[in-house]
Amino acid sequence: MRDYFRSDSHFTAVHKHLHRLTQSGTVLAFGFAVAALLMPLSPAPAEAALVRVNLGIYGGRATDLAAYQGSGGATRLISAVDGDIGGVRLNDAGTTWEPIFYGRPGAMAEIEADITDPAVGSGAGVIFGLLYDGQLIANTSEATGTWSISGWATVTNGGIFHNGINVVEQVSTILGHSSGTYVGTRDGNIYRSTDGGSTWSLLATPVATATVDSIAAYVDDPNNPALYAVVDNAGTKELYPITYAGTYSVGAAMTVGSSGGVFERVFVYPSTSIPEAPLLFVTGDSPSQSVYRGENNGAVWSTVTEAMHYFQHMAFDAVNDRIYAVSGVSTDRGLSFVAMPNYSRTEGAIHSNDGTMAIDPADPSHVYYASDWFVGDYTEAAGTWTANGDVVN
Fold first, then answer.
1. Alpha-carbon span 116 to 126, nearest angstrom
2. What is residue 313's predicted lDDT score, i.e. its pLDDT?
3. Within the chain, where are the H helices?
4. Phi/psi of residue 32, each to 5°?
5. 2 burial class (0-12, 13-18, 19+ CB within 10 angstroms)?
């Protein structure tokens, strides 16, 4: 059945949704619908009707969110969408979502805003999108002051990256960081750009031909931070530290606590001043309710497991010493998490999904989560969540 889905993460997201439907007693009808889709085609009765199940208002779920400050200083929110529309952007007034493409470029897996520090480079304001086929695309229009829906172009890195016609090196993940924009590829390489994608430097190859699934950057050096990468090495997930001393070098694979080698993403707390620094977090596979916490560069690991939490994605507010994980927030540096509430719609209680989240750069107590309906809006103060509802749906 997995072959009917475009990726493992797509499969696990559907698997988890079926689990939730089981809890609500509706999985039987849904199971019959899926079974019918997988059977050989036969003529449908004339009275048959199409049914849309949890697809969100734009034909697909929010696969990735990015919040950034636009050219005028206001917060901008963009989302990749697993559907025909590809992606959407909250308009300047914050009153409606608008498509970010003309035509149909393909479903988008990740989206990032270039947040390179001006002291490091010149890329700030460029928007990068990663399509499911491994193409990297970029929109430079907002970096010049005026957003344009037609400002997209394929990023080819001098012919190295997949250009939409020739499948050369396919990009597998993107990271926006103050030291530049990083991409990992399915050939096992990690590149960085500090000029909005015009040029790229090959930094390291943790394992040749092993897909880079996740990259984290630790700000010990503002210009050349230490990196961590999760790679898929022939079906085995491995975590590698990558340090800088004039050039980048890849260390030995790290043992991640009690994970048993089953994990997906790596994150690192940005502060260098806390006693646990560098403090690592490695999240489990999509339906996992565990996150693996590694103090002092993974010298000591612990496992945080809490019911009804899904730790696939994390984000950090180091100023207020908060760690956000999808469905919860921690004020003790990841030792425990306070659950976020559901919010109500006429359709019923709506809760966060595990795929993605973003922090408002102008107000780090204000966060956005992918939800059942599309994007949820929450604020948090002193450990108490406030559910603000949907983002202008």
1. 10
2. 85
3. 8-24, 27-38
4. -60, -40
5. exposed
Integer Cα distance of 67 and 73 in angstroms: 12
DSSP one-letter code for 144: G
Distance CA 374, CA 62 (A): 6
Whether the per-residue pLDDT at 125 is higher than 80: the answer is yes
* Of the candidates 159, 121, 110, the residue with the CA atom closest to the CA atom of residue 356: 110
DSSP letter assigned to residue 56: T
0.85 exceeded by pTM: no
At residue 338, φ and ψ (nearest 5 deg) are -95, 125
Q: Please give the DSSP secondary-structure letter assigned to residue 120.
A: T
Please tell me the predicted confidence (pLDDT) of residue 348: 62
Q: Report the alpha-carbon distance of residue 227 to residue 229 in Å, rounded.
A: 7
What gap in Å lies between CA 246 and CA 137, rounded to an integer?
30
Q: How far is CA 200 from CA 111, 159, 193, in A?
A: 18, 12, 5
Least reliable range by pLDDT among 228-242, 306-320, 372-386:
372-386
CA atoms of 162 and 8, how far apart (whole Å): 21
Element (H, E) at 316: strand 314-317
- Beta-ladder partners of 292: 282, 303
Which tokens hold the place of 180? 């530049």
* 3-state SS, residue 2: helix
List CB contacts of 311: < 8 A, sequence separation 6 or more.
281, 283, 284, 288, 289, 290, 291, 304, 325, 326, 354
Q: Give the residue among 79, 74, 113, 112 at the shortest CA–CA distance from 94.
A: 74
Residue 353 exposed, middle or buried by CB count within 10 Å (0-12, 13-18, 19+):
buried
pLDDT at 357: 87
Distances (CA, A) of 238 to 191, 225, 295, 342: 19, 20, 18, 35
Q: Tokens for 204, please give them.
A: 């390291």
Tell me if 262 sits within 8 A of 288, measured CB to CB: yes
Band the pLDDT of 27: cuts 50, 70, 90. very low
Q: Is 1 helix (H, G, I), strand (E, B) or coil?
A: coil
Question: Could you report the per-residue pLDDT of 208-235, keeping only the tens digit for each?
Answer: 999 999 999 998 888 899 999 999 999 9
